[in-house]
Amino acid sequence: MTMTKTTLAEQAYQELRERIISGRLPGGRRLLPNDLAADLGISPTPVKEACLRLEADGLVSTSSRRGMVVRSFSEEDVEEIYAARILIEKGAVEAAFDAGRLDETVCRSLSRSLEQHRRFAAGTSLDDLSQALLHDRAFHSTLVAAAGIRTISEAHARILGQTHTLFVSVPGDYERSVAEHQAVFDAVMAGDRHRTLEALINHLTRSRENTLRQVRMLATQAALP
Fold first, then answer.
1. How far is residue 14's CA from residue 23's CA, in Å, rounded to a whole number?
2. pTM
3. Do 201 and 90 contact (CB within 8 A), yes or no?
4. Residues paired with residue 61 on neighbouring β-strands, in sequence order
5. Contact 173, 209 (CB under 8 A)
6. CA 214, CA 225: separation in Å to the nearest integer?
């Protein structure tokens, strides 16, 4: 019984997480366990457990007025997320260079993610964006995983989930992001530590500024009568 319950909670967590990150459950959407349970064909208990995990991931927030909702992100949230990403990704890439772990296998994985990211970034639908972000996550996750530090990779995955939950709610220049990934990849292939770090930080800095711009614009629009 416990195993079945745990399995259902895990399944609910994975499904709801994917819906949030893909934008099918957008920021501000209320999460009603009974309705979600009916949709998933399970009881409300594993759905509630899944929502608690999503709250721990920073994808769901709880208020006394509205209950559980998909998290919306403020300018301060964006600043904190990107500060964390820059620290983690820069440190992980440095560790990967130190350990000589940016090898042929890692480069093949980066190349696959880059090509798929390029393919979907040119699309205009929410499904295209969701797929582009999936491969965007894979590219950055591969870089961080190359450091070989599991705890860092787990923390990074949590932050990436928050980043891309935000991305599906704001317009952005995702083809530019592909070009910046290409610059990172080319530097890794060249074995150039300095150029890799410079390209990575440039990419994350530009992404942060674009995201802040869009969040401000959406806040201004929301404030209009």
1. 14
2. 0.83
3. yes
4. 69
5. no
6. 19
